[in-house]
Amino acid sequence: MTNFILSPPLLGFVVASRAALAFGVGLLVANRIPEPRRRKIALTLIGLGAATTIPAARLVFGSRKQERLVESPLEVAELPGL
């Protein structure tokens, strides 16, 4: 099993990058803001969300911890710290 340990700032960074991307896409399909202004804002948010995707993914996958299942008592003796 893989556990991801995320600090509150890291979780906030991931959520903010996903929200910027989603909000930008939502603005592109909305009709409430005039088209030239809406397009500039939407493309900026999409660019920001896309640019932060790779660093966010690297941080999240770099924080994972792999748990090993102990199968026999001999393996317990071999594990450091037990």
Descriptive overview:
- With 82 residues, the chain is mainly α.
- It has one domain.
- Strands 1-2 form a two-stranded antiparallel sheet.
- Helix 1 runs antiparallel to helix 3.
- The radius of gyration is 21 Å and the shape is elongated.
Cα(first) to Cα(last) distance is 20 Å
Secondary-structure element order, N to C: EHHHEH
Radius of gyration: 21 Å
Determine the number of helices (DSSP H or I, runs of at least 4 residues): 4
Number of domains: 1
Derived structural class? mainly alpha
- Uncertain segments are none
Sheet having the most strands: 2 strands, antiparallel
Strand order of the largest sheet: 1-2
Question: If you average the pLDDT, what whole number results?
Answer: 80
What is the helix content? 55-70%
Query: What is the beta-strand fraction?
Result: 5-15%
- Beta strand count: 2
* Overall body shape: elongated
Any chance you could write out the topology, listing elements then pairs?
Blueprint: E1 2-4, H1 8-29, H2 35-51, H3 53-62, E2 64-66, H4 73-78
Antiparallel strand pairs: 1-2
Helix pairs in contact: 1-2, 1-3
What is the gist of this entry?
Helix content is 67%, strand content 7%. With 82 residues, it is mainly α.
What brief labels describe this structure?
two-stranded antiparallel ribbon, about 80 residues, mainly alpha, about 5% strand, 4 helices, about 65% helix
